[in-house]
Amino acid sequence: MDDDRLQKARETIGGVDREMAGLFVKRMEAARQIAAYKQERGLPIRDAAQERAVIERNLAFIGADELRSFYVRFIQDVMDISRQYQRRLIEGMRVAYSGVEGAFAHIAARRIFPEGRMIACSDFQSAYEAVERGECEVCVLPVENSYAGEVGQVTDLMFNGGLHVTGMYAMPVTHNLLGLPGATLSGIRRVISHPQALSQCAGAIRRLGLESVQASNTARAAQLVVQNGDPETAAIASLETASLYGLQVLAQGINESGLNSTRFAVFSRAENKPAPAGAAGFLLLFTVNHEAGALARAVNVIGRYGFNMRALRSRPMKDLPWRYYFFAEMEGDDRSDAGQRMLRELAGHCNILKVAGRYAAEVSLGEVDEA
Fold this sequence. Notes:
The protein is 42% helix and 25% strand. The chain contains 12 helices and 16 strands. It has helices spanning 3-41, 48-59, 65-90, 104-112, 124-132, 152-160, 195-200, 202-208, 218-228, 239-245, 294-304, 337-347; strands spanning 94-98, 117-121, 138-145, 149-150, 164-172, 176-179, 190-193, 211-214, 233-237, 248-251, 261-268, 281-288, 309-316, 324-331, 350-359, 363-364. The chain is globular and about 90 Å long. The model is unreliable at 367-371 (pLDDT under 50).
């Protein structure tokens, strides 16, 4: 290449770089708006499905085969920078959870929002109300355990409150028996933990002949063991909790089911609107007329429009004895044409009809990027 051609190539690159600098500023301004949207709705910074869609869409603009792999690396680097920028903007997001540091809800919240500021609350309602009052941007609450079933208090908050579910996450749960340093398994006489943890470990508790004592959450149980200083008392909690409070592990994995998992929901004041890319589900809460066949007619409407119910449960209404509302976890998108028609027809069969949230595919917290 002669000097003139080299100089022209460098001038071309210089011109492209100037254009790219302007486009970079424009892209990052859009990233700022996305960060504000995510913070308002309690969405995690990384959206792997959206990133894959961006790469697939943009590859269509690259005609030269030898450049395609380089372009993928380029756009991945651009998106990584965008995530870093969004993380800096969102740092300090206040994330409410029920319990104390080390509780499963705290672990889940930290994995979903590694950039957030964790705010401990005394119970589910306090965490929920902290978001309603604007003291926190989001809260992370358990909604269901694969062994013990639904968390009814949280379902009631969905029905009575004004927050929206914007994401669903599953976290494998392994329960461990934790004691004071020097304690022995054979010397333990009683065990403290959250009622669901006690239920999930009922077989082991029975085999060991232990007295059960309830605590508000698993991490609080660990705190009580430390505070009481009784070597005959143990807690059921996570390995993270053992490390946090200086307890020793007396027995690992004592939960009855090796497939034990808890689903957590993120609650925000703002709903996902429009529905998230790749919308996978929405939560429907409703009451039906107090007459024979009313529930069957409502369910038939849902089925006729092709929506599958992942779950359907009833809960008592606190202010109306012997009356119930229904919680349905639906597959699909309620914002679709079929979804809108289904909701309009369903309204004719329901006294109360409420979409409590919509979310993309459920995420396993074991796969969450904490970098």
